[in-house]
């Protein structure tokens, strides 16, 4: 029996999500995930008009520097966050490299935090440019979570000149996946009715807590999507993935059929 060993952080996240899964059978919740588009890079392009429309990365420009953020123009060259700066420069000769201005990013981050708080106090930041908002009961009494998300995106653009993407669903897992689906400057809703089919077609790499090692092992087992995951029982997943297997089970089963009780 092979048990995948995850790093401490990942394991913590898995356990946290597992606990959340069990409590998240309620599809009436309204969760919005807001994610700024290419955040650091977009701030630099906002503040330096000459950088707009050009491939740009934010990060250390030394031999050991790493890309902290890449503009969408840079991404067309295959450049991604966490890539070695040397590699990024090799892939794009005209790459603009900008040193991070963390104070500026933090200021923008608290500006957008204020906008979130205009709608709900239930804000869970994941990083400077991302947060979950529970808008089930929101301060302005807006009945639709998508509507709240659109208003927040419009306000962010109006007050900071930057764009954000939003994901809307009835739990954090789906809201986060959704926000990545229409980037940049998009909004995606995954309704309770759409969730089962959506999860079934979702590549396992997109599942929370599935890292590289786990994804490789799953592919070896013929698991490529949520639907493949669903074919396995809780016992089979636990024997292959230990405690993490339970998370995958909950993610799949609970979201696919929120009425399931175990
Ligand atoms: Mg972002």
At a glance:
With 262 residues, the chain is α/β, with parallel strands linked by helices. It has helices at residues 8-23, 39-47, 72-75, 85-91, 102-117, 145-160, 172-179, 195-201, 212-220, 226-230, 234-241, 243-256, and strands at residues 31-36, 56-59, 67-70, 96-98, 123-127, 130-134, 164-169, 187-189.
**C-alpha Rg (nearest Å):** 20 Å
Taking strands numbered 1, 2, ... along the chain, how are they ordered across the largest sheet? 5-6-1-7-8
The termini sit apart by 25 Å
Mean pLDDT across all amino acids:
87
Number of domains: 3
- Top CATH class of the largest domain: Alpha Beta
Structural class: alpha/beta
**Tally of contiguous helical segments:** 12
Shape: flat
CATH topology assignment of the largest domain: Alpha-Beta Plaits
The major β-sheet equals: 5 strands, mixed
Give a list of the ligands.
magnesium ion
Number of strands: 8
CATH architecture of the largest domain: 2-Layer Sandwich
H/E topology pattern: HEHEEHHEHEEHEHEHHHHH
Low-confidence segments, given as residue ranges, are 1-9
The CATH homologous superfamily of the largest domain is named: Reverse transcriptase/Diguanylate cyclase domain
Structure description:
The protein is α/β, with parallel strands linked by helices. The protein folds into 3 domains: 8-25 and 195-256, 5' to 3' exonuclease, C-terminal subdomain (DNA polymerase, domain 1), CATH 1.10.150; 31-38 and 102-189, 2-Layer Sandwich (Alpha-Beta Plaits), CATH 3.30.70.270; 40-98, MutS, DNA mismatch repair protein, domain I, CATH 3.40.1170. The protein contains 12 helices and 8 strands. It has helices spanning 8-23, 39-47, 72-75, 85-91, 102-117, 145-160, 172-179, 195-201, 212-220, 226-230, 234-241, 243-256, and strands at residues 31-36, 56-59, 67-70, 96-98, 123-127, 130-134, 164-169, 187-189. The strands form 2 sheets. A 5-stranded mixed beta sheet has the order 5-6-1-7-8. The longest helix has 16 residues, at 8-23. The radius of gyration is 20 Å and the shape is flat. 37% of the residues are buried.
């Amino acid at each position: 029996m092979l048990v995948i060993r995850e790093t401490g952080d990942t394991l913590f996240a898995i356990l946290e999500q597992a606990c959340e899964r069990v409590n998240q059978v309620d599809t009436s919740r309204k969760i919005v995930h807001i994610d700024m588009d290419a955040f650091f890079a977009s701030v630099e392009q906002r503040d330096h008009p000459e950088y707009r429309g050009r491939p740009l990365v934010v990060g250390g420009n030394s031999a050991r520097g790493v890309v902290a953020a890449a503009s969408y123009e840079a991404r067309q060259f295959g450049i991604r966050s966490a890539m070695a700066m040397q590699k990024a420069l090799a892939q794009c000769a005209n790459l603009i490299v900008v040193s991070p201005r963390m104070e500026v990013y933090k200021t923008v981050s608290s500006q957008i935090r204020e906008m979130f708080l205009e709608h709900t106090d239930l804000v869970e930041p994941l990083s400077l440019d991302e947060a979950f908002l529970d808008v089930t009961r929101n301060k302005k009494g807006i009945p639709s979570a998508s509507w709240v998300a659109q208003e927040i995106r419009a306000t962010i653009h109006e007050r900071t000149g930057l764009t954000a993407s939003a994901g809307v669903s009835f739990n954090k897992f789906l809201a986060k996946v959704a926000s990545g689906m229409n980037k940049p400057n998009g909004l995606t809703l995954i309704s309770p009715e759409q969730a089962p089919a959506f999860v079934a077609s979702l590549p396992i790499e997109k599942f929370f807590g599935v890292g590289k090692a786990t994804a490789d092992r799953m592919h070896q087992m013929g698991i490529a999507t949520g639907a493949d995951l669903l074919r396995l029982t809780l016992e089979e997943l636990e024997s292959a993935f230990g405690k993490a297997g339970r998370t995958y089970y909950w993610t799949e089963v609970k979201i696919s059929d929120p009425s399931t009780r175990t």
